[in-house]
Amino acid sequence: MRLDLIDIGSNLTHDSFAADRDKVMARAAQAGVRRQVITGADLGSSRQAAALAAQHPEHLWSTAGIHPHHAQHFAVSQRGELRELLNTRRVVAAGECGLDYYRNFSTPAAQRAAFSAQLEIAAELRKPVFLHERDAHADFAAILKEFRGKLHGGVAHCFTGGESQLDEYLAIGLHIGVTGWVCDERRGQALRATVPRIPADKLLLETDAPYLLPRDLDPKPKSRRNEPGYLPHIAREVAALRGESLASVAEATTRNAVALFALTDS
Question: How many helices (H) and strands (E) does the chain have?
């Protein structure tokens, strides 16, 4: 069947794609992944993502934001630059932003300050948010609730949680991004049990390439690098867990991505 999938979270500006980025994009399109949203994780990578999207206007869009790992480097003076990036054509969401208490490369206080600042900017510019959370659910949800009614949608990127987290995120109004984590029968048990409960109009698919290579992919690339072209493998697993056809999952997730991120060719 002919697929039309959207990878809402690929890191195409990553160094691992420098030598063969065009080939990676061609393989993705051949596999039915015809559109991608490229993730920005700091101001530098957000600029690179915006430039890459501008070079491929039929296939790519991007986000602009400060990942919690880089939160300590986000100064008040840089908010203007982030606003400018978010007003750039084809930059469709604020983020990757959020909280990560697992690594704590930035202090929790710096993470919370940067997160709140980016939510303020997103609300001001009427942009959806591309969200990261790891081992910080309580603070993450509490900050998002402070912005309830102000944000213009968002996605819990790389969701790995269970039913209680899903219910809380849905109540906040978030979409749910599912990666190849769902293909791991060991670490992904909670997610695999939760996937059938995600409402069809809130489900999104992503690879987070080059990270999170699906564990059950066969054959695996020797490089262990994940690619956007593996998104159909994730879609098939999601469809199987939901008891739905691949076509219905592809149609729903593509429709959801277009609506959330207002993806247009202009």
Answer: 9, 8
List Cα–Cα distances, 141 to 168, 233, 261, 262, in angstroms.
8, 31, 22, 25
The class that CATH gives domain 5-261 is alpha beta
Residue 181 and residue 191 in contact, taking contact as beta carbons nearer than 8 Å: yes
Put the strands of the sheet holding 91-100 in their side by side order.
5-10, 33-38, 60-64, 91-100, 129-134, 154-156, 175-178, 203-205
DSSP string, 52-69: HHHH-TTTEEEEE---GG
- Find how far residue 183's CA is from the centre of its chain: 17
The full set of domain ranges for the chain reads 5-261
Which structure tokens are listed for 202?
């809130």
SS3 category, 109 = helix
Mention every residue, 6+ apart, whose C-beta is less than 8 A from residue 235: 3, 5, 205, 246, 249, 250, 253
What confidence score (pLDDT) does residue 230 get? Answer: 98
Cβ burial 147-158 (10 Å sphere, 16+ → b, else e)? beeebbbbbbbb
Give the dihedral of Cα atoms 70, 73, 76, 77; nearest 10 deg: -120
Residue 89 is predicted with a pLDDT of 87
- Split at pLDDT 50, 70, 90, the class of 265 is low
From CA 69, how far away is CA 110, in angstroms rounded? 10
Rounded Cα–Cα distance for residues 94 and 104 (Å): 21
For position 120, what pLDDT does the model report?
97
C-alpha to C-alpha distances, 186 to 5, 148, 241, nearest whole angstrom: 26, 34, 15
Please classify residue 67 by burial: count the beta carbons closer than 10 Å to its beta carbon, then call 0-12 exposed, 13-18 middle and 19+ buried.
buried
